Amino acid sequence: MSQISVERTADPSMTGFQLFNSLVKGDLKPGRLWHAKNYRAKFALRTLLAPLTTIKLLENIAAIPTCQDVLLAQPRLPCKLHHPYLNVHFKRQDTVKAIGEHYQMMDDALPHSVLRKIYNAKPYYLCEIIGKNGQLFRIGISPIDSLNKEGELSLLFYNDEGTMLSECTFTLLTYLDKKTLFVGGLQGPKRSVPHELIQTATKECHGLFPKRLLMQALCLFVKSVGCEQILAVGNDTHIYKNWRYNKKKSSRMMSDYDSFWLSIGAETTQEGYFRLPLTIARKSLEEIASKKRAEYRRRYQLLDDLELAAHAALSR
Asked: What is the superkingdom listed in this entry's lineage (predicted)?
């Protein structure tokens, strides 16, 4: 990951206009892109299209206590207003508000030692999962810059070779006066990854597939940061349904959001979002055929161990 240029680091007392000035002049270069004069010029020109909201966004960024770490992890954060963000309904003002709230809520909820691990060059691993045949899997959290249109943070499921098998991207914000974790994206692995790796992971994890395990970690994260609800985009409210992406990127949506959310007990909202359960329901052992109960016990133990490990990782 690119380093912030040494000419100047983000000053916690910096105003939005001062941050804009430092970026355009090249005094502050949070990543390789900012070393290019044409990139900085494009940023300046696009800012002229929405000067007030851009300066407000930059003020919110400058106010982040871990601003330098955040910019290092998300070098395109100052450019968030130049593209659709989080869901198809969001306007620029919504984006500015959501980003300000996200970093404030993160700072209020988690120790700075944890935040610095999250905003690092490598994913911060919340837990390790040992499969039934000894294969190792990890769930990490990281701001993935290539997913920056879908949210500020991503939970990621990796196998023992470091191959990403699933990712869930989200932003913390206030929606209808409730602290909310808003999921802007949920995807499986890259097209080049063999489907057999998903099948192997599911078998190793006692029938729990990677997306289901990410949802368990997501529910735990919601508790850790004090959110009151989980909302998520559906097939028709994902950012790639924005008119700008009608043909270019709509084909990149490889997940059927609606079906998956409904499968874990979500409810639809009037806006086309899904309200996810804060705790994913489990079948009682009495409901399960006796020959399958041992497998379900192991499955539930894995989920409990995941939750304990993730809670500890977010507390230290």
From this structure: Bacteria
Query: Residues 252-299: pLDDT tens digits?
Result: 555 789 999 999 999 999 999 999 999 988 888 888 888 888 888 999
Please write the tens of the pLDDT for every residue from 162-179: 999 999 999 999 999 999
- pLDDT tops 70 at residue 251: no
47 lies in the same domain as 125: no
Residue showing tokens 């079948």:
283
- Within a domain: 234: yes
Identify whether the C-beta of residue 217 lies closer than 8 Å to the C-beta of residue 126.
yes
Best CA proximity match to 182, nearest among 222, 240, 213, 141: 222
63 with 126, same domain: the answer is: no
**Contacts by residues 275-282 (CB-CB < 8 Å, ≥ 24 positions apart):** 275/229, 275/230, 275/231, 276/183, 276/215, 276/230, 276/231, 276/232, 277/219, 277/230, 278/219, 278/222, 278/223, 278/229, 278/230, 279/219, 280/212, 280/215, 280/216, 280/219
CA separation for the pair 235, 248 (Å, rounded): 16
Enter the pTM of the model.
Answer: 0.91
Each residue of 267-279: pLDDT tens digit? 999 999 999 999 9
**Contact assessment for residue 193 and residue 186, using Cβ atoms and an 8 Å cutoff:** no
What does the block give as tokens for 212?
């289901």
Three-state SS at 65: coil
Do 299 and 173 have their domain in common? yes
* Token pair for 32: 């390789």
Exposed/middle/buried for residue 163 (C-beta within 10 Å: 0-12, 13-18, 19+): middle
